[in-house]
């Protein structure tokens, strides 16, 4: 939603400007990182506000480490947000993917560029063109995430942020 995008942008800008902040951790709520955009909004007239692509670029450009704590699902725009982060930790039961293709859409926030850079072209093409959900253990093998944990993902992400 526009309010979530605006809050993410505002939070990132505040963190970057605050010298006491050493790292940023992005997580979802209620055991889910993000299932992506609400497709019902795709048919609505464009509203003024923040777009996802520039926010992901803001994450990527941050001079402070940004860690994604992925629980549940990181799908579509949710995965694209995680791809913009410098590090990604996933719960063992998490799933990631770009399912937009199953309804005839391509990922629109540069996921088609960031994913191949991270895991290589063949693996990225499989994920981009099939829309399949990748389990956390496979994501680790592919290099999509840096760590898989069975414990509290947010606490693990904070530990990693403190370490880097």
Automatic annotation (TrEMBL):
PROSITE patterns named in the record: ENOYL_COA_HYDRATASE
Q: Which UniProt keywords apply?
A: Isomerase, Lyase, Multifunctional enzyme
Where does it sit, as one GO cellular component term?
Answer: peroxisome
Q: InterPro entries per the record?
A: ClpP/crotonase-like_dom_sf, Enoyl-CoA_hyd/isom_CS, Enoyl-CoA_hydra/iso
List the Gene3D superfamilies. 2-enoyl-CoA Hydratase, Chain A, domain 1
Q: Which GO terms describe its molecular function?
A: (3S)-3-hydroxyacyl-CoA dehydrogenase (NAD+) activity; delta(3)-delta(2)-enoyl-CoA isomerase activity; enoyl-CoA hydratase activity
Query: Which superkingdom?
Result: Eukaryota
A GO BP entry: fatty acid beta-oxidation
Matching Pfam families: ECH_1
Provide the catalytic activity annotation.
Answer: a (3E)-enoyl-CoA = a 4-saturated (2E)-enoyl-CoA; (2E)-hexadecenedioyl-CoA + H2O = (3S)-hydroxyhexadecanedioyl-CoA; a (3S)-3-hydroxyacyl-CoA + NAD(+) = a 3-oxoacyl-CoA + NADH + H(+); (3S)-hydroxyhexanoyl-CoA = (2E)-hexenoyl-CoA + H2O
UniProt similarity note: In the C-terminal section; belongs to the 3-hydroxyacyl-CoA dehydrogenase family. Belongs to the enoyl-CoA hydratase/isomerase family.
Q: What is this protein called?
A: Peroxisomal bifunctional enzyme
What is the taxonomic lineage of the source species? Eukaryota, Metazoa, Chordata, Craniata, Vertebrata
